[in-house]
Design a protein that fits this description.
homotetramer, mainly alpha, 3 helices, DNA-binding
Chain lengths: 99, 99, 99, 99
DNA sequence: GGAACATCACCGTGTC
DNA sequence: GACACGGTGATGTTCC
């Protein structure tokens, strides 16, 4: 199949058909771009909301960095977390940072 | 102000008040965490939607990498315009034309 | 003192003096910019070197994420680290993530 | 491949070989950490140098914010040029003019 | 599974 | 000295 949005000359087909195809490709492209941009705006808005919540929590005395750590850990699988911590301990031990 | 979530003994106030404060801190913490997690879920869902749109566009023959480039550039253009404006402000300030 | 690089007309002084001042300002600006850019290049190069070392370590079987954690911890003051961890534990406890 | 730093028992090989391997792992780990820390020190020193240059420029009357803006823009110009070239490649690819 | 890319969090700096 | 911003580094994701 031809790549959408390209302007390679069709071997067969009338000029009108080609024009219609190209136009359609352009409209389609525009539609996709707009859908994406719309979604990204909403996504950004949510990101801003999250920032605001952290800010609000900070305003009531919570430590943002620690909050983020909590959220991160809750997202993480328990086993993963333990494995990672064990590995770090191993390295620390090798470096004499423990004991 | 004291850091929320710590349990240092208040100089004044009954034990009950303290308990209530700690409990309230806990509830507040839960509330913040849950709000954040809720928002992050929605954000993730939007990310997935965006993915889907790209996938759909790809399915109709568009080149995803090029699409991403277009979206990126349109975003950069906006940013740059804002940056330019901010820069003009800065220069005007440096030249003593503001303030 | 006048702001360097600005072109406000000096109240006293010949046009030649002014021209010389402006030129000097320009040269000086150029010099500063170049010094900064030179230093930033070197800084970037070191950043790249660090990346390379991590990559090499990874190539010999080390876990990069854990290595980074180690480096971070060695940089951090011991007390700081403990405080942060204690705070996180407090939050985790409040959320029933411990016990 | 086994993760470096773990101490899983080798299926073959004497205990001595294993010990040697572990020790080597430790030495290797130390070496990597130290290389990284050394590089980070140098990097930090350069960061300090840059700060000093800005401070010096400020001392001779330049507006630091404006200076930073200039440096930033010059960097962006470079990046953009590279981005443009990459973009052209992408488009050519999308149009089937490459490959 | 590795490389490139986009996003995100952290930190240093400047400001008020 | 707290807040805001910009720069930088790290993480997670996508593509090959």
């Amino acid at each position: 199949m031809a790549t959408a949005g390209t302007s390679e000359t069709a071997v067969n087909g009338s000029r009108d058909e080609e024009k219609a195809t190209v136009s359609f490709g352009r409209d389609q492209l525009k539609a996709f771009i707009e859908r994406i941009e719309r979604l990204e705006e909403e996504k950004k808005a949510l990101g801003d909301d999250i920032r605001d919540v952290y800010a609000e929590a900070k305003g009531t005395g919570f430590d943002v960095k620690a909050l983020r750590a909590i959220v991160r850990m809750r997202k993480q699988d328990l086993n993963e977390r333990k494995e990672q911590e064990a590995l770090i301990e191993t390295y620390m031990h090798a470096l004499g940072m423990l004991n």
